[in-house]
Amino acid sequence: MNTTNLNYSGKSRPPPANTVGIVGWVRANLFSGPLNTFLTFFSCYLLWLIIPPLLDWTVFSADFTGNVGRDCTTEGACWAWLDQRIAQFLYGFYPAEAYWRVNLTILLLFPALAYVLFDNLPFSAYGRWFSVAYPFIAAFLLVGGFGLTGITTDKFGGFMLNLVAGLSGIILSLPIGILLALGRQSKLPAIRILSVTFIEFIRGVPLITLLFVAVIILQLFLPPDVSLDQLVRVMIMITLFASAYMAEVIRGGLQAIPNGQYEAGQAMGLSYWQSMRLIILPQALKISIPGIVNTFIGLFKDTTLVIIIGLFDILGQARVLQTNPDWMGKVDHETFLLAAIFFFIICFSISRYSINLEKRLDTNRE
Amino acid sequence: MARSKKNQPKTAKNVIEITALNKWFGNFHVLQDIDLTVSQGEKIIICGPSGSGKSTLIRCINRLEEHQEGSIIVNGTELSHDLKDIDAVRSEVGMVFQSFNLFPHLTALENCTLALIWVRKKPKAEAEAVAMEYLERVKIPEQAQKYPGQLSGGQQQRVAIARSLCMNPKIMLFDEPTSALDPEMIKEVLDTMIELAETGMTMLCVTHEMGFAKTVADRVIFMDEGQIVEENEPNKFFTKPKHERTKLFLSQILAH
């Protein structure tokens, strides 16, 4: 029904000047009442207390040159180790002449991710195939074979190890989590019981325990001549661990979808898998984005636990340097700060992207 | 129980045959010995108090609900547990819901093309052409690119009708299509349904819109407590109801 479009436009005026623009924003967000005004000034005071000394310590009074810890003589941070040690923080014990393979893998990650994450990119038909092929390309570049010099995974280390374990976990845990969530809702008892048992078992056991199982106990059950790569075992365990949490996050999303959506799909003659893929999952996953991202970020940070089973990720490298006689006692804060910065960059990017994605998928916007 | 079939044309074939249908929700006997035959092109209005089983009855026809006893034959196919391809039967039976059940993550146009593309396997361009044709028939082609959340209730329900019609169904089921609408939206939806009735579509409609019933119905069925209490052509149904229960119901819904 079309309502008559009445024209009142002669009476509309622009809003008062102090409610829009920068002035309006400052009034609304910083000084909207006595409490908020107090909090604004108090926050500024706190920042003034923290920021200048922090900058002074990390940059202005810091030492950037020297070969051993004793060369760092000022009050500030000691960054002299960066020059010789940054490569180990990034690549672990990966051979230096093959660093380009890691760099190329990370470089190729950007287009591979972009084609999954963003629509409307040029050549998207080919790009999607590249994204699908990327994990295999990455494995080939990192491990070698087929002409490239083979490099065993025990050479992997530093932040590269966190990235490999974290990204493979992120990529695999989402589809496995979806299947587990659907399995938990299945009408077939066998599938349902299997899914519930798996989820509850994995959630009931700490990740460290699972990693120990993967590394030590699993070998007892495998035939002596079969040896599963250490890193692969870790990747499997991290993935399974995240999948169980993912399944519960997605189950929450599935339960939020009204029954009418399932019925409308059925009534139109769509099969179960068509309904799921075209109607239910797009909505359920959208609702679950905050939880999914939470799980991703948690998983990525959990990759630092591999230090316990003797793999030297970025935290492992920090420990190595901290106990090195040349640097002992000089680099405790600095190395952890560097690791924190690396993790923050990745985790913050994931978080920002998810907010962008939620806005893009919001179909109630006018 | 009255079962008048005199205004069915002798030549028309039966598209729905329900015999001795019984259904329980747990211990609750929701449908009791229902017999109903619908011939092609017939318009049937089902009314009755809430909880009388009228929604459940039409939901049995496309097997959103499974029945326990009796038989339902839709377009020559009996609905039963052994039925391998229920989706094929469903794609021939359109359904419009009280709460619209549009897919909120898809535009109006995509809502309409979804089943055409995935069930009927039509190419996208062809599906869009069909969808636009039906969106024009329900008079909202200009809303094709909008999401359901951006449409009014009446517009959403008309998109839902267009979505069902796109599949070119032989039967249309309406489950209280105007009950969730504001009064001023009801007319636009009923107008759409009247136009659809004029095309000769077989329609089963659960509704309390008695004006609509008088306009389009071949038969009005009154249900109470899981049974068909009375069944008659609309004139006689409204002017000379046979059962006390029907009289009481009509006096209540026509009172204001």
Per-chain topology:
The complex is a heterodimer of chains A (366) and B (256).
Chain A: H1 21-29, H2 34-60, H3 82-91, H4 99-117, H5 124-143, H6 158-184, H7 189-203, H8 207-221, H9 230-255, H10 259-267, H11 272-302, H12 314-322, H13 332-361
Helix pairs in contact in A: 3-6, 3-12, 4-5, 6-7, 6-9, 6-11, 6-12, 7-9, 8-9, 9-11, 10-11, 11-13, 12-13
Chain B: E1 14-25, E2 28-39, E3 43-47, H1 54-61, E4 69-74, E5 77-78, H2 86-90, E6 93-96, H3 108-118, H4 124-137, H5 153-166, E7 171-175, H6 183-198, E8 202-206, H7 210-216, E9 219-224, E10 227-232, H8 234-239, H9 244-253
Parallel strand pairs in B: 3-8, 3-9, 6-7, 7-8
Antiparallel strand pairs in B: 1-2, 1-4, 4-5, 9-10
Helix pairs in contact in B: 3-4, 3-5, 4-5, 5-6
Termini gap of chain A: 19 Å
Q: Class by helix and strand content of chain B?
A: alpha/beta
| N- and C-termini, Cα separation of chain B | 29 Å
SSE string of chain A, helix = H, strand = E?
A: HHHHHHHHHHHHH
